[in-house]
From TrEMBL:
Record family assignment: Belongs to the mitochondrial carrier (TC 2.A.29) family.
Name the record gives this protein: Mitochondrial uncoupling protein 4
Keywords: Membrane, Mitochondrion, Mitochondrion inner membrane, Repeat, Transmembrane, Transmembrane helix, Transport
Lineage, top ranks: Eukaryota, Metazoa, Ecdysozoa, Arthropoda, Hexapoda
Principal place of residence: mitochondrion
């Protein structure tokens, strides 16, 4: 039987403080990231493997599926390469996951009507804003993650390795483009985060409240799992096109002027991708992204909700 706490007690205030909820959100995201990260790396490789721009430089065009790509990475580069770039991803979530949750809850409280409810439209705006702001702050860590994920493929193409660890990757990017270079690809990255959070935060929140209201479900792991499944699918559907553009912009080589050499910007990347590979190129890596976001949302939300319950705090 759960322990009831006085909402005004010091213990309750401490476990429901911004710092506590921020910390729990980060821990939950780390657990989800560790379990599902190989899907993210496979998705990145799929998104860059057949870039037509790369063919102009003599690279071999490829058309591998998710399983073949993952198996190929494990065989050719080693099984641990499936977690290459995990450290900057942890750094990203230390900023991103805590920030997005706190920002969304702030927006949600601000948008509540007289009955304490939030409309789907208002919640969507809150999710878009929370995801955008959190990702803008954390964008440099995502750039390093993408570079580390793509490095193994460059080495297999006969190119010399550019860095051996996360710290060297940061140093290389700073030497190439300066401090502002860390925000290369930030526009599609922010757009992707906005869309994914509209799918993840809003779909989870709205699905959870709908199931409680319409089906009388209790605030238990079963409810969290059902809402998380819906959140992962919606996030993958709305977020994949922006994710493809973000990955290609971040992965492209950089010239002496610090600018990308393959694409002039997001619109140019979009036009080249659709023109040369078709509209479905914007959904390259959808399956691994969905297979990642689904379990990621499941692990993240169940971990967050249950940790909050365990310490006597409020659920999402």
């Amino acid at each position: 039987m759960p322990v009831l706490r006085n909402a005004d007690s010091p213990a309750s205030k401490a476990t429901d403080s911004i710092a506590a909820r921020y910390g729990v959100a980060v821990i939950a995201s780390w657990a989800a990231e560790t379990a599902t990260y190989p899907f993210d790396l496979t998705k990145t490789r799929l998104q860059i493997q057949s870039e037509v721009a790369a063919a102009k430089h003599g690279y071999k065009m490829e058309n591998h599926g998710m399983i073949k790509t993952a198996v190929g990475i494990a065989k050719q580069e080693g099984i641990l390469k499936l977690w290459s770039g995990l450290m900057p991803m942890f750094q990203r979530h230390a900023i991103y996951s805590g920030s997005r949750l706190i920002l969304y809850e702030h927006f949600r409280n601000a948008f509540k009507d007289a009955n304490g409810k939030v409309s789907l439209g208002a919640a969507s705006i809150g999710g878009l804003a929370a995801g955008s702001l959190a990702q803008l702050i954390a964008s440099p860590t995502d750039l390093v993650k993408v570079q580390m994920q793509a490095e193994g493929r460059r080495v297999l193409q006969g190119k010399p390795p550019r860095f051996a660890n996360c710290r060297q990757a940061y140093a290389m990017l700073y030497a190439e483009s300066g401090i502002m270079g860390f925000w290369r690809g930030a526009v599609p990255n922010v757009q992707r985060a906005a869309l994914v959070n509209m799918g993840d935060l809003v779909a989870y929140d709205y699905s959870k409240q709908f199931l409680i209201r319409e089906f009388g479900m209790a605030d238990t792991a079963g409810l969290h799992a059902a809402a998380a499944f819906a959140a992962g699918f919606v996030a993958a559907v709305v977020g994949t096109p922006a994710d493809v553009l973000k990955t290609r912009l971040m992965n492209q080589p950089v010239g002496s002027d610090g600018r990308g050499t393959l694409y002039r910007g997001m619109i140019d990347c979009l036009q080249q991708s659709v023109k040369n590979e078709g509209i479905l190129s914007l959904y390259k890596g959808f399956l691994p992204l969905w297979m990642r976001l689904g379990p990621w949302a499941l692990i993240n939300w169940i971990a967050f909700e249950n940790i909050m319950l365990a310490i006597g705090g409020h659920t999402f």
